[in-house]
Amino acid sequence: MIDLSILPVYLTAVVALLLIPGPDMLLIASSSLSYGKKVGIFASLGNATAGLVLTLLAAMGVSALIAMNPIALQVLRLLGGAYLLKMGWDCMRTNPADAPEIEQQTGLAKTLYRRAVISNLLNPKALIFFVLFLPQFVSTQSTATSGEQMLVLGLLLNVLGLIFNLFLVSMVGSLGKSLLKNEKFRTNQHKVMGLVFFILAIWLLASQVPTPAIS
């Protein structure tokens, strides 16, 4: 469904993008470090879920319509920033005694999954990325429609992104395993995540969101 001649260039671009540190990498790495591999895996799955939704929106042309509306983008940015601030505040207010044991992290893992999904969907830069990035690799040599090609390209991007993030979880989770056994760290692990959410909120609220010109 895609022009295979552009695949090497596309894969090179995707790998380069994955290696650039960003808010998703920060959230996944800090989740793995603070709460262990299981929570990091769920955060990675949340990121992938949001990516799949954005891919579908891009393929259907919905995201392009939103991206052309400056008001919609600003509303998304404000909602995303407010959501991240709330998550940070909730983490800061959490009782250290509520920190789960490594073997009892299912509830926390589901919470981080949900937070990763929502924070990505409320990030206008993520939406614009799919609008601007995927169409560059749509080929007129393919018999598939542009929407079908963008769907395949987006799915490929999400699969590679998930693999990369799971590798990151494995690396960071192993490094943080000893920290999770440290009582002093465990009493502050919620505050670490709260600080991460505050950083992400500031990053989103302070950033300028461009409105792409789409013909």
Mean model confidence by pLDDT: 82
Gyration radius over CA = 18 Å
Q: Please, how many domains?
A: 1
Count of distinct strands: 0
Please give the share of residues in helix: over 70%
Content of β-strand:
under 5%
Order of helices and strands: HHHHHHHHHH
- Class by SSE composition: mainly alpha
Q: Major sheet: size, sense and barrel closure?
A: none
Quickly count the helices: 10
Distance between the termini: 24 Å
Identify low-pLDDT runs: none
Form type: globular
Give the topology, please.
Elements lengths: L6 H13 L3 H13 L1 H24 L1 H6 L2 H24 L12 H16 L2 H10 L12 H31 L6 H4 L2 H18 L9
Helix pairs in contact: 1-8, 2-3, 2-8, 2-10, 3-6, 3-8, 5-6, 5-10
Keywords: Cell membrane, Membrane, Transmembrane, Transmembrane helix
Protein name: Lysine transporter LysE
Organism: Photobacterium indicum
